[in-house]
Amino acid sequence: MAYRHTLVIKENRDFKRLYARGKFQTHPLLVTYALKNKSGCSRFGITASKKVGNAVCRNRAKRIIRAAYRQLEPQLNPGWDFIFVARTQTVQSKTPQIYEVMRRQVEGITVHGKSVSRQKQPPRPGKK
Q: Would you state the pLDDT for residue 39?
């Protein structure tokens, strides 16, 4: 499966970097993390935890997300890293639904800069 201008994120450190520093948007069907990268191409990764279901359900969720991303890819500006996290309802969804959610989330993060703000938690008393 070839993507035109996109590489696949496979390294755990890249996933952790996006979770820690990336902007994100949530929806009952999908969670999207995004972070600008310094390379000229985009990268994406997909995760589906055991909460989503058994292996068949997790693979179906990832397949649906991949199909939606493939449709969205030509409209994306290069230079972004994306992580898409499947949710339990993703398995019952169809690709057009996921595509629409993904499009809104990616547009909200990359174009408008809107995302859930990450506030640093104050240190707990008695802990260093």
A: 85
- CATH number for the domain spanning 47: value is 3.30.230.10
Q: What are phi and psi of 119, to 5 degrees?
A: -105, 135
* Token pair for 124: 């707990």
Range of the domain at 105: 6-110
The verdict on residue 53 lying in a domain is: yes
The Cα 83–Cα 2 span in angstroms is: 18
Q: The pTM is what? A: 0.84
Q: Find the angle CA(36)-CA(41)-CA(47) to the nearest 5 degrees.
A: 70
- Residue 1 maps to a domain: no
Give tens-digit pLDDT for 66-108. Answer: 999 999 999 888 899 999 999 999 999 999 999 999 999 999 9
**Residues in contact with 12: Cβ distance below 8 Å, sequence separation at least 6, in sequence order:** none
Higher pLDDT, 26 or 124: 26
Q: Is residue 35 part of a domain?
A: yes
Domains: count for the chain: 1
